[in-house]
C-alpha cells in the first residue's frame, strides 16, 4: 500500500470515530431517567424568549442614615443569596439622593449587590 492510501484510511477512521462519539453524546443527552417525564422538543421555540427574572427586594428597618458618607445601617431579614443569617449591618449606598426622606424606624425594601467584602444598596424604597 502506498503512504497516501494509508494516510487516507487513517483520516477516514478518525472521522468515523469522531462521528460516533458525537452521536453517542447526543444520544446520551436524549435519555431520561426512570420516572422522569419525556422531553417534548415541540416547545423549544416557546423557550427561545426568556421571561424577565422575578425581582424580589429584601426587607428591613432603618437603624441610622448617614447621607454625607453614603452609608445606611439596616436591620434586615435574611437574604438567601447574599446574607442568609440576616441581622444588622452597615451598607454603602450608590446614590445619596435615594436616602432623602428616609429616617430611623422606617421600614424599607432594598436591593443589595456584593463588592468583594462589602455590600452596596443599589435601590431602596420606603415601604411604610
Model description:
This protein is α+β, with helices and mostly antiparallel strands. The chain folds into 2 domains: 3-48, no CATH class; 58-126, Copper binding periplasmic protein CusF (OB fold (Dihydrolipoamide Acetyltransferase, E2P)), CATH 2.40.50. Helix content is 22%, strand content 31%. It is built from 1 helix and 5 strands. The protein has one helix spanning 3-30; strands at residues 58-66, 71-76, 87-93, 107-115, 118-126. The protein has a 5-stranded mixed β-barrel with strand order 1-2-3-5-4. It is elongated, with a radius of gyration of 28 Å.
What secondary-structure arrangement, pairings included, does this model have?
Layout: H1 3-30, E1 58-66, E2 71-76, E3 87-93, E4 107-115, E5 118-126
Parallel strand pairs: 3-5
Antiparallel strand pairs: 1-2, 1-4, 2-3, 4-5
Brief descriptors of the model:
5 strands; 5-stranded mixed β-barrel; 1 helix; single chain; 128 residues; alpha+beta
Amino acid at each position: 500500500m502506498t503512504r497516501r492510501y494509508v494516510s487516507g484510511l487513517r483520516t477516514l477512521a478518525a472521522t468515523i470515530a469522531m462521528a460516533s462519539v458525537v452521536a453517542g453524546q447526543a444520544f446520551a443527552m436524549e435519555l431520561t431517567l426512570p420516572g422522569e417525564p419525556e422531553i417534548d422538543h415541540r416547545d423549544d421555540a416557546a423557550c427561545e424568549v426568556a421571561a424577565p427574572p422575578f425581582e424580589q427586594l429584601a426587607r428591613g428597618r432603618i437603624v441610622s442614615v448617614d447621607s454625607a458618607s453614603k452609608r445606611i445601617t439596616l436591620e434586615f431579614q435574611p437574604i438567601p443569596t447574599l446574607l442568609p443569617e440576616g441581622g444588622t449591618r452597615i451598607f454603602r449606598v450608590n446614590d445619596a439622593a435615594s436616602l432623602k426622606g428616609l429616617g430611623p424606624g422606617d421600614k424599607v425594601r432594598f436591593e443589595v449587590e456584593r463588592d468583594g467584602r462589602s455590600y452596596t444598596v443599589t435601590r431602596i424604597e420606603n415601604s411604610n
